């Protein structure tokens, strides 16, 4: 977000977004003086817009400018391709700009809507990966107008970005549900600041602190909130940590989702959108198994919906997102800032990546057009070698891999594999009418007694006085998961060998 700066400001892009920013900066003079627009459009170069000259082309002009330590550039081209942004960034860095900010991607900038508070310092996720698809949020969020919308995990990376974009959906109420007090406080304050600065519409924001694992509470709160739409993003997600805490993973992810579904069905939620992951495909980790079972739970609930009820239970599956909390990008950044080394598990490890704003825009779109019982898959493009991503990030910060910053390989951790899959062998992705949203068709039903498995897992996760001996028994839990999901092979960490049961 914007901070006070008293230097000279150059806005890259003299289009509508740039002009809107310039007008706001004039009103808030404490942020500095807008000296010029820099643009590559011959039709704009040489003109004055609200008294501000338009200089260009960017490459030529930037090299002639003499920067002082307070000079700042704001890139205001929300629809720019990754390739163009990389070029602009390189030019601005070479020109000596001390600070470079950027407006978020086109998915967050609506027609006639661009605000200084939305700007932030440019970082690697803005330049890496493919160009995000352009989604018309006003159009795709029409189904939420006047509705009460609940986001679980609202303080997390995906949940918080969903909330930012949901500000523009015209919802009457936006419930920010989460277990962590601090993260919910932060997203609540951020959204209120955005609203104060004119971003989005005036949805009533309601922070809700609660625990998905508490069934009685979930029934109570779903009855109080009476949400029309639920976006379920909350989950324990860190793969190696969940390998060491498998009971917690199943208790929170599987039974928490079951509690939410129960409350949603009981109180008439019309659209239930479950966020799932590529790690649920042929899972080898506890986290992946938990998400596979959650997928099955949601789709099984959809089968119980009778025609005419108007209920829709669906799941949206996608791979990794760039820059999420606990992901490799923030880790790489911290490692680079301390001088390395940057640690990569294996030179051949690959993952699918998408920016958080693009993933959330597509999730919101799928939530509106999705049908009951459908599993959707976001088109992730080509997978990326983690080693290549690490080297690109090192170069982003002005260093050369191996010469300045070393890359070290640490080996696969429990629950990890070299590649992920986006669908099973018995699944077939089909195009929809919406770009980068696929519908996954299963050629045959899965042979899994989900409710029977949950009854066996329940006394392991929740204390049962009739079965006290199996409470928190991770070995039994892993054995049950292995029998149910053949791809799953548990690796026993040292803590288990030492007799520590979590």
Can you offer a commentary on this structure?
With 502 residues, the protein is an alpha/beta fold. The protein has 3 domains: 8-122, 3-Layer(aba) Sandwich (Rossmann fold), CATH 3.40.50; 144-339 and 353-387 and 413-442, NAD(P)-binding Rossmann-like Domain (Rossmann fold), CATH 3.40.50.720; 459-497, no CATH class. It is built from 16 helices and 22 strands. A 9-stranded mixed beta sheet has the order 10-9-8-11-12-13-18-22-21, sandwiched between helices. A hairpin with a 2-residue loop joins strand 3 and strand 4 (52-55). Helix 5 (157-166) packs across helix 12 and helix 9 packs across helix 14. The radius of gyration is 24 Å and the shape is globular. Residues 490-502 have low confidence and may be disordered.
